[in-house]
Specification:
single chain; alpha+beta; Thermophilic metalloprotease-like; eight-stranded antiparallel sheet; 11 helices; 20 strands; globular
Length: 366
């Protein structure tokens, strides 16, 4: 018997997040293990009148390719993928593989080469989204591997995922609309701010957000969501910051990350573990050593760290800062092949000042 929460999740994604309509061309990208959500979303999309492409990935394929492909193969983009990038009007990406750490043994320089080659596709999709030509949604199907990463049983993790998506409510859309209204108030308030200062143990960081646009992320591009974000002025970041949670990227976890900035660029890097990988990612290109995003997490249904950035960056009472590319809708100009979110926990200790006035303390807006 199909879990009614899964059906509500699929319906909410199709109707609310992607707002599919007759004639839309939707591409669903997913791991094979996510079949139940793929089928549910496919069904709802067809009922909405959309044309649907499915791109189902098998576990192990990416690992084999990154291990054995030549540099030319790693950099190759099939023409069919370029055509799809230009023609799809909606994209649904569903995470949920058997092994979330299958790429842990891949050399960092090979990951960086592939991401750099594919950055043109990412930039084009961002531009099409900004132009109103493309909607996308990234979500997660609850799997045993994800539950293990989160240190939960599968049943507990299912409850967590559906709760974070409000799929356990009778009317998930109404819940998202309520959160959207709350975040709209935050955006209106933050839009008047020119400078932010973050103070916490091992952290004193200042940056400018003057003339940048704050975005209300309310369950459309990410599902779940629950954040407001913008792009810092590229050369404005100064100071130091330490991140309490592990920073996970391409299945690799780096712990105890500390970064120092001067005039916008990373000038000091230290990690308790995974330092070599961190250094390699920051050296991917010129933009990887700058911050492309600053954000506040607001989702009340997410309070636990799960090693999945889709959820973790939305933990209510936290901030996150992304190394690498910025989102053009924020007015950011930083370009990079990476976008790596790192989470700062401010729930027990930490304050944020906006133009010298206290804005955020111990996980709450003042």
């Amino acid at each position: 018997m199909t879990d009614p929460r899964l059906a509500r999740m699929a319906r909410t994604i199709v109707d609310y997040s992607l707002a599919l309509k007759p004639g839309d061309l939707l591409r669903i990208e997913a791991a094979a293990l996510a079949q139940p959500l793929v089928v549910a979303a496919f069904t709802e999309a067809v009922r909405a009148g959309a044309h649907v492409l499915t791109r189902i990935a098998l576990d192990g394929i990416a690992e084999v390719f990154l291990e054995h492909a030549s540099d030319d193969q790693l950099s190759h983009i099939p023409e069919s993928e370029r055509i799809e990038t230009e023609t799809i009007t909606a994209r649904l990406a569903i995470g949920g593989g058997w092994n979330n750490r299958s790429l842990s043994g891949v050399r960092p320089d090979r990951l960086a080469l592939q991401r750099k080659a594919r950055s043109s596709l990412q930039e084009r999709m961002l531009q099409r989204r900004l132009n109103g030509e493309l909607r996308w949604c990234i979500t997660q199907y609850p799997t045993p591997a994800a539950a293990q990463d989160a240190e939960m049983s599968l049943a507990e993790y299912e409850d967590f995922v559906f709760g974070a998506c409000f799929a356990d409510k009778s009317d998930p859309v109404a819940e998202w609309q309520s959160l959207s209204a709350f975040q709209a108030g935050l955006v209106e308030r933050l839009s008047r701010v020119r400078r932010l200062r973050v103070e916490a143990p091992d952290t004193e960081l200042e940056l400018s957000v003057a003339d940048r646009r704050w975005v209300n992320s309310d369950g459309k591009a990410n599902f779940p969501s629950g954040e407001v974000f913008t792009a810092p002025v590229e050369d404005s970041v100064n100071g130091r910051i330490r991140f309490e949670f592990p920073a996970v990227y391409s299945g690799r976890a780096v712990t105890g990350v500390s970064l120092s900035f001067k005039a916008g660029r990373v000038t000091g890097v230290r990690a308790d573990s995974g330092d070599e990988f961190l250094q390699a990612m920051i050296a991917t290109d010129a933009g990887a050593s700058r911050l492309g995003e600053v954000a506040f997490g607001t989702n009340p249904g997410i309070q636990r760290f799960t090693r999945n950035i889709l959820f973790d960056e939305k933990i209510g009472g936290t901030m996150h800062f992304a190394l690498g590319s910025s989102y053009p809708e924020c007015g950011g100009r930083n370009k990079s092949a990476i976008h790596w979110d790192l989470i700062k926990d401010l729930r027990t200790a930490g304050r944020v000042f906006a133009d010298g006035e206290l804005l955020f303390e111990q996980g709450e807006f003042r």
